[in-house]
Design brief:
binds guanosine-5'-triphosphate, transmembrane helix, 18 helices, single chain, 4 domains, Nucleotide_cyclase
Amino acid sequence: MKITIITFVTLWLSMLAMSTYAKNTQPSVLRLQLSWQHQFQFAGYYAALDQGFYREAGLNIELLEGGPGTLCDGKMLAKIDFCNASGSVVKQRVEGQPIVVLASILQHSPIVLITKKKDGLFTPRDLVGKRVEMLLSGVPIPEIHAMLSNQGVELNEIKLYENTTNVSVLLGDSIDALYGFSTNEPFQLREKGIEYKIISPRHYGVDFYGDVLLTSERLLQVRPDQVEAFRKASLRGWRYAMNHQADIVDLIIAKYAPHHSRRRLMAEAKAIESLMLPNLIEIGHINAERWRHTADTLADLAIIKPDYSLDGFIYEPPKPPEETSNLTMVRVLIIVLSFLTVAMVALWGGYIRLSQEIIERRKVQKRLRRDKELSDKIAYTDDLSGMGNRRLFYERGNDAILLAEVDHTTLSMVLMDIDHFKQVNDNYGHLVGDQVICEVADIILRIIRSRDIQARIGGEEFAIILPETDLVGAVELAERIRHAVAELTLESGEGSFTITASFGVSAYGGVNDSIKQLMQSCDEALYQAKHQGRNQVVSV
Ligand SMILES: Nc1nc2c(ncn2[C@@H]2O[C@H](COP(=O)(O)OP(=O)(O)OP(=O)(O)O)[C@@H](O)[C@H]2O)c(=O)[nH]1
């Protein structure tokens, strides 16, 4: 009996100890305050949560949605562990707030001014005497302020209004320009059918960082490992999000913002990509010079004092492991080796079976990947010419137009049609006709750049979208294709023959503000080229 009681008490005590241990090892919650309502702007953090990157890093992260009035500063970071803000947050640091920037997520700021196209307000100088929504809690938005100042416009020359975060005000007559994000408002305006113009600080020499990730000096002091783990897992989340944009859009709709449409979030994703530049710059990269430049801009505007200091503002990740002492390395090595030996002995039994399963699974995954690649290829390719098809042209073309709009870059379209193609078929037969289509496709693919979007969109009709190309450049390219086609010698059973082609060219902008409208303009130009005798390029 005595033994039973002792055994029971021992068991109970060990269970209690185990549960206390479990409680202690459960990571405490760290909170990230988002600056706005759920949308693609925070894609990296959703991805890090959903993909388990935070969990793998031993973190328990909670995301807090933001909204009007959310302000990421020292006061917030006294209560919340992390938050995201715009590049002008450097002002708060210079004023003495103990905040630290962990990563620069958007390399360029999305902040812009938006006007109605019909009002003809296209530059900062046009805003003199106008009503502009550019105050946040009574303070002018620094980037807009700097842009106006660069253009010699004083704040007292403008009627300043508090930001309402509602693009519909542009519909009425109460305001002439409002502040917005190039990642959000242009899409909303297009959906409402409002024609608008963007006045971007970037075009007037003001280039602040967009979203940056912040923490407090206090958290960095007491939990440096967790801060570093959070930074790394968040950036891993961002890399994942930018490589799987459509999946993250689905996740946002399913979990965070069911009221947003897929179209809206995809448009935002593309706009975010154009400000983040993940293919050019390592995500999160911080350039100290750019922060200094931002601070100088604010000092020029007398927003901050000229003798500012940025010491301690930019986070320095811990030194890489190779710089730790040799003794530590040896200790780590011994622990790892001991662990590996124990693990290998324990796992040896199941090893063979497991590796066979892995090989099998890899084979199946490879097959599925190949099948998927193949079906994607089929869905977007014209099987005769190997060029893209209509579907590819319209889907990728829409994205390209969106980027041109957000980035304020040029874009043009070329529409091309082989002349008297019916005669080729009639004289030499359909097989030779097919051969001609393939030869012309080869010429186009040889002459255009890899980022141009090309497709055979009809029988003997081809279309090309040329990003970052103006009308002159597009006409030049069309002429090169026209010459190459005219120089082509084709063979048939009845001897050789030549062909020509006609071209219609048009550029994005003005009435040509959609792929449909661009296509219509190109079509009109092509019709004119045919009408004027064929074998020529006409632009409108
Ligand atoms: N071989 C072949 N012919 C095709 C294909 N698709 C369409 N066609 C033919 O292309 C011809 C197009 O003729 P039309 O639209 O009258 O134009 P056209 O003879 O080129 O005359 P213009 O465009 O006015 O210079 C038709 O005879 C179609 O049958 C294809 O994939 N292969």
